[in-house]
Specification:
The complex is a heterodimer of chains A (112) and B (111).
Chain A lengths: L3 E4 L2 E4 L5 E7 L5 E8 L3 E10 L2 E4 L6 E3 L9 E3 L8 E8 L7 E2 L3 E5 L1
Parallel strand pairs in A: 2-11
Antiparallel strand pairs in A: 1-3, 3-8, 4-5, 4-9, 5-6, 7-8, 9-10, 9-11
Chain B lengths: L2 E5 L2 E5 L4 E8 L3 E9 L6 E6 L5 E4 L2 E5 L3 E6 L8 E9 L7 E2 L3 E6 L1
The chains are: A mainly beta (112), B mainly beta (111).
């Protein structure tokens, strides 16, 4: 089924471990985005990408790394997870920066 | 700095009791204002985009309106299935800037 998917949907890890969250879209959208959603903060942009091999920082990029070797995939890596990175992570995509963003179902990450 | 403020934070309505949610924004120039609905445990779902003051859009019991400083999401005769968090986001007119989201309004409709 076409759309945007995220994996895993739930993840528990420990402080200091590396974690990669995956995002895949089938619309061939140019733009992809990573957000985190926390109580009291709403959705905050971590990183975004305009195309393969083009990425840019959002509001809260520290502690995260992204890559985009293929248009349809946009993985988010926490190189050394911290408890403050416990959150719900959403991936989104859009045809362009001016167009509507469509969101994936989210990944719930717990860092112990 | 672009800012989006949504009010109230939470709203509890009886079924059939109409009301409005507010989204106030501060941007150098508005390119677009977006409304999303988010159900618990799910990703935001797109509802509307508004581009200029005076514009209105409707979908079932929802109507979104836009002025130069704020947007309203009017909910007419709500039903329990309208219970969700409603998010507002703005895109500024300057360069290729991503969306800035408000913190949302959590709506509960009681039967």
């Amino acid at each position: 089924d076409a759309g945007i998917t995220q994996s895993p949907r739930y993840k528990i890890t420990e402080t200091g471990r590396q974690v990669t969250l995956m995002c895949h879209q089938t619309w061939s959208h140019s733009y992809m985005f990573w957000y985190r959603q926390d109580l009291g903060h709403g959705l905050r942009l971590i990183y975004y990408s305009a195309a393969a091999d083009i990425t840019d920082k959002g509001e809260v990029p520290d502690g995260y790394v992204v890559s985009r070797s293929k248009t349809e995939n946009f993985p988010l890596t926490l190189e050394s997870a911290t408890r403050s990175q416990t959150s719900v992570y959403f991936c989104a995509s859009s045809e362009s920066i001016l167009r509507t963003q469509y969101f994936g179902p989210g990944t719930r990450l717990l860092v112990l | 700095e672009d800012q989006v403020t949504q009010s109230p934070e939470a709203l509890r309505l009886q079924e059939g009791e109409s009301s409005s949610l507010n989204c106030s924004y501060t941007v150098s120039g508005l390119r677009g204002l977006f409304w999303y609905r988010q159900d618990p445990g799910k990703g935001p779902e797109f509802l509307f985009t508004l581009y200029s003051a005076g514009e209105e859009k409707e979908k079932e019991r929802l109507k979104a309106t836009l002025t130069k400083k704020e947007s309203f999401l009017h909910i007419t005769a709500p039903k329990p299935e309208d219970s969700a968090t409603y998010l507002c986001a703005v895109q500024a007119d300057s360069g290729n800037t991503p969306l800035v989201f408000g913190k949302g309004t959590r709506l509960s409709v009681i039967a």
